[in-house]
Amino acid sequence: KEYDDTPLLGKESDIQFIEGFELIANHTYKLVQNFASITDVGTEINVLKIEDILDASGNSVFENYEIIEDNSLFGTLTIKHRPVTILMDSKEKEYDGIELTCETFTYVEGSLVEGHKFDLGGFSSIVNKGEISNDVTKVLVLKNDTDVTKNYNITVQKGTLKITARYIEVGSLDATKEYDGIIIETNSFIYCILHL
After folding, report:
1. Do 116 and 144 touch, CB atoms closer than 8 A?
2. CB 116 within 8 A of CB 142
3. Which pLDDT band holds residue 8 (cuts at 50, 70, 90)?
4. Rounded to two decimals, what is the model's pTM?
5. What would the pLDDT profile of 85-126 be if each residue is shown by its tens digit?
6. What's the confidence (pLDDT) of residue 187?
7. How far apart are CA 37 and CA 23, in angstroms?
8. Residues 6+ positions from 194 with CB-CB distance below 8 Å
9. What's the mean pLDDT when you consider all of the chain?
Protein backbone atom coordinates (compact mmCIF):
# COMPACT_ATOMS: atom_id res chain seq x y z
CA LYS A 1 0.00 0.00 0.00
CA GLU A 2 0.94 3.67 -0.22
CA TYR A 3 2.43 5.21 2.93
CA ASP A 4 -0.26 6.53 5.31
CA ASP A 5 1.54 6.28 8.69
CA THR A 6 -0.53 3.26 9.75
CA PRO A 7 0.83 -0.30 10.02
CA LEU A 8 0.37 -2.83 7.25
CA LEU A 9 -0.16 -6.13 9.06
CA GLY A 10 0.17 -9.74 8.03
CA LYS A 11 -3.00 -11.67 8.89
CA GLU A 12 -4.24 -15.21 9.11
CA SER A 13 -6.00 -15.02 5.76
CA ASP A 14 -2.56 -14.51 4.14
CA ILE A 15 -1.57 -18.16 4.71
CA GLN A 16 -1.76 -20.54 1.75
CA PHE A 17 -0.54 -24.09 1.66
CA ILE A 18 1.46 -25.30 -1.32
CA GLU A 19 -0.33 -28.02 -3.25
CA GLY A 20 0.65 -31.44 -1.89
CA PHE A 21 1.72 -29.95 1.46
CA GLU A 22 -1.69 -29.20 2.97
CA LEU A 23 -3.07 -30.30 6.32
CA ILE A 24 -5.13 -33.48 6.16
CA ALA A 25 -8.92 -33.18 6.17
CA ASN A 26 -10.50 -31.85 9.38
CA HIS A 27 -7.16 -30.65 10.78
CA THR A 28 -6.81 -26.95 11.59
CA TYR A 29 -3.89 -24.76 12.56
CA LYS A 30 -3.35 -22.04 15.14
CA LEU A 31 -0.95 -19.20 14.31
CA VAL A 32 1.35 -17.35 16.64
CA GLN A 33 -0.36 -13.96 16.93
CA ASN A 34 2.71 -11.76 16.38
CA PHE A 35 2.09 -11.18 12.69
CA ALA A 36 4.57 -9.26 10.54
CA SER A 37 4.05 -5.50 10.48
CA ILE A 38 5.49 -2.52 8.59
CA THR A 39 4.66 1.21 8.81
CA ASP A 40 7.45 3.08 6.98
CA VAL A 41 8.42 2.76 3.32
CA GLY A 42 10.10 -0.57 2.63
CA THR A 43 9.45 -4.31 2.44
CA GLU A 44 9.20 -6.93 5.18
CA ILE A 45 8.84 -10.70 4.85
CA ASN A 46 5.29 -11.69 5.80
CA VAL A 47 6.32 -14.45 8.21
CA LEU A 48 3.42 -16.49 9.61
CA LYS A 49 4.30 -19.09 12.25
CA ILE A 50 2.10 -22.08 13.05
CA GLU A 51 1.80 -22.55 16.82
CA ASP A 52 -0.25 -25.76 16.84
CA ILE A 53 -2.19 -28.15 14.61
CA LEU A 54 -5.42 -29.69 15.92
CA ASP A 55 -7.46 -32.68 14.79
CA ALA A 56 -11.25 -32.67 14.50
CA SER A 57 -11.56 -33.35 18.27
CA GLY A 58 -9.33 -30.42 19.18
CA ASN A 59 -6.35 -32.58 20.13
CA SER A 60 -2.86 -31.38 19.19
CA VAL A 61 -1.30 -33.39 16.36
CA PHE A 62 1.52 -30.88 15.84
CA GLU A 63 4.26 -33.48 16.37
CA ASN A 64 2.96 -35.39 13.32
CA TYR A 65 3.87 -32.54 10.97
CA GLU A 66 7.27 -31.16 10.01
CA ILE A 67 6.99 -27.41 9.57
CA ILE A 68 9.41 -25.98 7.01
CA GLU A 69 10.06 -22.27 7.58
CA ASP A 70 11.67 -21.05 4.38
CA ASN A 71 11.67 -17.27 3.86
CA SER A 72 11.52 -17.79 0.10
CA LEU A 73 8.05 -19.32 0.60
CA PHE A 74 6.66 -16.28 2.43
CA GLY A 75 5.10 -13.29 0.76
CA THR A 76 6.04 -9.71 1.51
CA LEU A 77 4.46 -6.61 3.01
CA THR A 78 5.38 -3.45 1.08
CA ILE A 79 4.82 0.25 1.83
CA LYS A 80 5.33 2.53 -1.19
CA HIS A 81 6.35 6.20 -1.18
CA ARG A 82 3.49 8.71 -0.93
CA PRO A 83 3.73 11.12 -3.91
CA VAL A 84 3.20 14.83 -3.21
CA THR A 85 3.69 17.73 -5.63
CA ILE A 86 3.65 21.36 -4.52
CA LEU A 87 3.93 24.59 -6.52
CA MET A 88 5.78 27.48 -4.90
CA ASP A 89 3.57 30.55 -5.21
CA SER A 90 4.59 33.55 -7.30
CA LYS A 91 4.85 37.17 -6.19
CA GLU A 92 5.46 40.50 -7.89
CA LYS A 93 6.00 44.05 -6.69
CA GLU A 94 7.44 47.39 -7.73
CA TYR A 95 11.03 48.09 -6.67
CA ASP A 96 11.21 49.50 -3.14
CA GLY A 97 14.69 48.39 -2.03
CA ILE A 98 13.25 45.67 0.24
CA GLU A 99 13.86 41.96 -0.34
CA LEU A 100 11.00 40.05 -1.98
CA THR A 101 10.37 36.45 -0.89
CA CYS A 102 7.35 34.15 -1.00
CA GLU A 103 7.20 31.19 1.39
CA THR A 104 3.71 29.94 0.52
CA PHE A 105 2.83 27.07 -1.79
CA THR A 106 -0.14 25.25 -3.30
CA TYR A 107 -0.70 21.49 -3.45
CA VAL A 108 -0.78 20.27 -7.05
CA GLU A 109 -1.02 16.52 -6.41
CA GLY A 110 -1.39 14.43 -3.28
CA SER A 111 -1.15 15.62 0.31
CA LEU A 112 0.71 14.95 3.51
CA VAL A 113 -0.65 12.47 6.03
CA GLU A 114 -2.82 14.19 8.65
CA GLY A 115 -0.61 15.51 11.45
CA HIS A 116 2.47 15.82 9.22
CA LYS A 117 3.79 19.20 8.07
CA PHE A 118 6.38 20.64 5.71
CA ASP A 119 9.57 22.24 7.04
CA LEU A 120 10.79 24.29 4.07
CA GLY A 121 13.87 26.53 3.99
CA GLY A 122 16.36 28.27 1.74
CA PHE A 123 13.70 30.34 -0.01
CA SER A 124 14.64 32.35 -3.10
CA SER A 125 14.81 36.13 -2.72
CA ILE A 126 15.31 39.16 -4.95
CA VAL A 127 15.94 42.85 -4.17
CA ASN A 128 16.60 44.57 -7.51
CA LYS A 129 14.54 44.80 -10.70
CA GLY A 130 14.35 41.43 -12.41
CA GLU A 131 12.73 38.01 -12.33
CA ILE A 132 13.90 34.74 -10.76
CA SER A 133 12.46 31.32 -9.95
CA ASN A 134 10.83 30.94 -6.54
CA ASP A 135 12.36 27.75 -5.16
CA VAL A 136 13.52 26.16 -1.90
CA THR A 137 16.71 24.31 -0.98
CA LYS A 138 15.38 22.47 2.11
CA VAL A 139 12.34 20.20 1.94
CA LEU A 140 11.53 18.12 5.01
CA VAL A 141 8.33 16.51 6.28
CA LEU A 142 7.93 16.32 10.05
CA LYS A 143 5.66 14.25 12.27
CA ASN A 144 5.87 16.24 15.49
CA ASP A 145 9.67 16.76 15.54
CA THR A 146 10.52 13.50 13.76
CA ASP A 147 11.75 13.60 10.15
CA VAL A 148 9.54 11.30 8.03
CA THR A 149 10.61 12.69 4.63
CA LYS A 150 11.90 9.25 3.52
CA ASN A 151 8.29 8.05 3.26
CA TYR A 152 7.38 10.66 0.63
CA ASN A 153 8.27 11.27 -3.00
CA ILE A 154 8.15 15.08 -3.09
CA THR A 155 8.26 17.22 -6.22
CA VAL A 156 8.60 20.99 -5.91
CA GLN A 157 7.53 23.07 -8.90
CA LYS A 158 9.05 26.56 -9.08
CA GLY A 159 7.08 29.78 -8.91
CA THR A 160 8.30 33.26 -9.91
CA LEU A 161 9.55 36.30 -8.01
CA LYS A 162 9.50 39.52 -9.99
CA ILE A 163 10.45 43.10 -9.17
CA THR A 164 9.38 45.72 -11.68
CA ALA A 165 11.01 49.13 -12.23
CA ARG A 166 9.91 52.06 -10.08
CA TYR A 167 9.15 54.91 -12.45
CA ILE A 168 9.78 58.53 -11.46
CA GLU A 169 9.40 61.72 -13.47
CA VAL A 170 11.66 64.67 -12.74
CA GLY A 171 11.12 68.29 -13.83
CA SER A 172 12.45 71.71 -12.88
CA LEU A 173 10.59 74.67 -11.44
CA ASP A 174 10.13 77.82 -13.47
CA ALA A 175 12.46 80.73 -12.74
CA THR A 176 12.25 84.23 -14.11
CA LYS A 177 14.16 87.50 -13.66
CA GLU A 178 14.83 90.72 -15.38
CA TYR A 179 17.73 90.64 -17.85
CA ASP A 180 21.00 91.44 -16.18
CA GLY A 181 23.52 89.54 -18.35
CA ILE A 182 24.06 86.82 -15.74
CA ILE A 183 23.01 83.21 -16.34
CA ILE A 184 19.89 82.26 -14.46
CA GLU A 185 20.29 79.15 -12.32
CA THR A 186 17.89 77.19 -10.17
CA ASN A 187 18.48 74.18 -8.02
CA SER A 188 14.80 73.65 -7.44
CA PHE A 189 13.05 70.69 -9.04
CA ILE A 190 10.01 68.60 -8.60
CA TYR A 191 9.46 64.88 -9.07
CA CYS A 192 6.60 62.51 -8.88
CA ILE A 193 6.47 58.74 -8.67
CA LEU A 194 4.52 57.15 -11.46
CA HIS A 195 2.85 53.81 -10.70
CA LEU A 196 2.19 52.21 -14.04
Report:
1. no
2. yes
3. very high
4. 0.73
5. 999 999 999 999 999 999 999 999 999 999 999 999 999 999
6. 65
7. 26
8. 167, 168, 169
9. 87
CB 141: neighbour CB atoms within 10 A? Answer: 21
* Alpha-carbon gap, residue 126 to 55, rounded angstroms: 78
Question: Hey, which bits of the chain come out as E strands?
Answer: 8-9, 28-31, 37-38, 42-45, 50-54, 76-79, 82-88, 91-94, 105-109, 116-121, 130-134, 138-143, 146-147, 152-157, 159-164, 167-172, 189-194
Distance in angstroms between the alpha carbons of the first and the last residue of the chain: 54
CB 101 within 8 A of CB 123: yes
Instruction: Give residue 103's Cα distance to chain centre.
Output: 15
What is the chain's length?
A: 196
Cβ 85 vs Cβ 110: under 8 Å: yes
The CA distance from 31 to 67, in Å, is 12
Task: Identify residue 170 by its one-letter amino acid code.
Answer: V
Eight-state DSSP code of residue 62: G
- Coil, strand or helix at 193: strand
Instruction: Give whole-number Cα distances, 184 to 62, 95, 171, 175, 179, in Å.
Output: 119, 36, 17, 8, 9
Edge-to-edge strand list for the sheet holding 138-143:
116-121, 138-143, 146-147
Which amino acid is residue 49, in one-letter code? K
What's the CA gap between 3 and 152, in Å, rounded? 8
DSSP SS3 for 106 = strand
Residue 84: which of 1, 2, 159 has the closest Cα? 2
